[in-house]
Amino acid sequence: MNQANLMEMRKWIDTMEETVKTQNRANAERRAKKAEQEQKEFEEKLMRAAASKAELEGLASKIKGSENAVIRDQLVTLVTMV
Description:
By secondary structure, the protein is mainly alpha-helical.
């Protein structure tokens, strides 16, 4: 091989190396964006779950309050009957 061929091969190798590095950076950026999106979606689901839990707890409290009111009314009725 002559010097010119070696120089051309070296250029080609350098180009290929740079291409691989560029692809690796692009892949890393895509993975980072995907991870960020997944994190955001997880946090949104977590917020919805927390809101649902709060709503369920509120409904349970309301039901418990209604049950207590019914019991109280029944006791008042029994006491006034005596």
